[in-house]
Amino acid sequence: MSERLPPGQPSANAPLIINTQYVKDLSFEVPGAPQIFATLRSQPQINLGLDVKVQKLAPAEQNAFEVTLHLRAEAFDPAQGGAAAAATAEEGRKPAPIFIAELAYAGVFTLNNVPENAVEPVLLVECPRLLFPFARNILADVTREGGFPPVLLQPIDFVALWQSRRAQTAAAQGQAGNA
Fold first, then answer.
1. Is 35 exposed, middle or buried (0-12, 13-18, 19+ CB in 10 A)?
2. Tens-binned pLDDT, residue by residue, of the chain (179 aa)
3. 127, 29, 134, 108: which is closest to 72 by C-alpha?
4. How far is residue 146's CA from residue 71's CA, in Å, rounded to a whole number?
5. What is the C-alpha to C-alpha distance for residues 53 and 83, in angstroms, rounded to an integer?
């Protein structure tokens, strides 16, 4: 016989429980407003950054963790790819951004009976995968409401991101051991 739960009530035996999710920090800047709206003639070029941070919550006997997705979208005018961009590069400056959107979207997760070797991948792969669609929508909404085409993030391979992070950590530890 299966266990029946009221809607929205997680099983106490579930290995991963989403306690809550929320916008931890949100910033949207348009440094060149209002002039940029009159001069921008093409779709902005977007540079994206993503990071995942995990923090264990107190009290220590609970297996509760805050997982935060940090997203940064910085837009530039592709028309500045010519002489103006070359001149600013020679001066050691990068072109002025059209807009900067930064989002820290977090969730509090409880892990139950998760094997020790699976805790890191659950926190750095599965939890961000669950948060990502909500963060993606917020970023699209804020850029659209800011007067620009919405930034629509493509799906992210959190497994590859986690593996890359592990490889960088191992390489850094190897270099520190050789020094």
1. exposed
2. 444 445 555 556 788 999 999 999 999 999 989 999 888 888 889 999 999 999 999 876 678 999 999 999 999 988 776 444 444 555 566 788 999 999 999 999 999 988 889 999 999 999 999 999 999 999 999 999 999 999 999 999 999 998 988 888 888 877 766 65
3. 29
4. 17
5. 39
